[in-house]
Amino acid sequence: MRERKSFIELPFVQSILAALLCILLGLLIGFLVLLAINPAGAGEGIMAIVKNFLTYPSVPAQLKYLGNTLVKASPLLMCALSINFCYKTGLFNIGCAGQYVVGAGACLYAALAFKMPWIVCLLLAVVVGGLWGCAVGLLKAYANVNEVISGIMLNWIGLYLVNMLLSLVKDSASPYTQKVASVNQGAIMPSLGLSNLFSNNKYVTIAVPLAILIAILIWVVLNKTKFGYEVQATGFNKEAARYAGMNEKRNIILTLVIGGALAGAGAAFLYLTGYEEWSVTQSSVPAMGFNGIAATFLGALNPIGTIFSSFFIQHITSGGAYLDKSVYPSQIADLITSIIIYLCGFVLFFKLALNKSISKRKEKKS
C-alpha cells in the first residue's frame, strides 16, 4: 500500500514555504541595507515598503491606493504568465518586455489615432504581441537562434519603433502621448462598478478580474489539456517529444505566440485604464516585462501562485514610493525584489533539504 504523504510533503506546501522564506530573507537583507545607509530610520523605512497603501490612516484612502496597486499588478501578472507559459516549453521568454512594448504601441495608436473602442484596441495589442513572439519562435524553431538573444534584440527594435509610432499621437506640450480618457473615452476599459469598491478609483477596471481569470485558464490549459501536456513534454525533452509524434517546432512557435499575446494584453490592461501615458522619449524598455520574471519564479512556476506573487512584487515596488527620499533611494524596493529573485534560485535546495529532514525523521520513527 502506498504511503500517504504528510501535509509538509505536499509539493504546493513546500513551494509556499520556499517562497515565504525567499520573501523573509529578501526583506531582511533590504533592512540591513537600510541600516547601513541610515540606522535611525531603517525600521520605519522597511515598514513603509511592507505596508504600502496601509500607510494611510483612513480606510477609503487605503482602498483607493490598493486599487492603484491592483491596476499595476494586472499587467505584471500577464507578463509573468507569458514567461511562465513559455518556460513550460523550456523557453526563457525574456522578449516578453518587447512584446509588452509593441502591445502598448498597438493599443494606444488604435485608441488615439483611429478612436477605436477598447475591445478592438485590446485585440490589436494581443495580435501584435503574438506576432512579435512569433518572430522569436520562428527563429528558434527553424534557425535554432537562442530565444534570449533574439528576444533581447527585438525588445529594443520594438521600443524605438513604438516611440516613433506614438510620436504621431504625442501631446504637443510634453513627451507623453495624449490622455486616452480625454481623446477617446470609448477606449477606456469598463469598470462595471469595480471602481466603487475602491473609493471611486476610476482606474480600477475589468482588467483586474480578467487577468486573474486568464491565470486560471492558463493553469487549466497546462494541466488539463492535451496541448498543455505536449507543451510541457516538449520542455522536458524536445527529442523525446518528437519521437513520441509531437510537433516540437509547432509547439515552440505556438507557445511564444501565446506568450507574446499575453504580454501584449498586459500592456493594454494598463494603458487602456488611463492610469499612465507612454513617453516617446524613453530610452529603456519598461521594467514590467522583467519584473514578470520575479513574479514567475516567486510563484513557483505555477499560474495560480503567480497571481499572489505578482501582487506581492507590485506591492513592495509601490511601497518603495513611501520611503523618505531625503534619506533613502526609492530603488531599495527594486533591490529587495532582485534579492528575492536571486534567492528563488535556491528554492530547489530548500525543498531537497526539507525532504531530507523529513526522511531522517521517518527513519528514526521506524
Structure write-up:
With 366 residues, the chain is mostly helical. The protein has a domain at 85-286. It is built from 16 helices and no strands. Helix 1 (11-37) crosses helix 16 (347-365), helix 4 (96-113) packs across helix 13 (288-298) and helix 13 crosses helix 15 (332-344). The protein is globular, with a radius of gyration of 22 Å. The mean pLDDT is 88.
Indicate the topology:
Layout: H1 11-37, H2 42-51, H3 59-87, H4 96-113, H5 118-143, H6 147-166, H7 180-183, H8 194-197, H9 207-224, H10 226-236, H11 238-243, H12 248-271, H13 288-298, H14 303-319, H15 332-344, H16 347-365
Helix pairs in contact: 1-2, 1-15, 1-16, 2-14, 3-9, 3-12, 3-13, 3-14, 4-5, 4-6, 4-12, 4-13, 5-6, 5-12, 9-10, 9-14, 13-14, 13-15, 14-15
Question: Which short descriptors sum up this protein?
Answer:
366 residues
Main sheet specs: none
- End-to-end C-alpha gap: 16 Å
Residue share in helix: over 70%
Give start-end ranges of low-pLDDT stretches. Answer: none
In sequence order, what are the helices and strands, one letter per element?
HHHHHHHHHHHHHHHH
Which class do the helix and strand fractions yield?
mainly alpha
Helix count, per DSSP? 16
Which word captures the global form?
globular
Measured by DSSP, the beta-strand proportion falls in under 5%
Mean pLDDT: 88
Question: How large is the radius of gyration?
Answer: 22 Å
Annotation, overall tally of beta strands:
0
What does this entry show, briefly?
With 366 residues, this protein is an all-alpha fold.
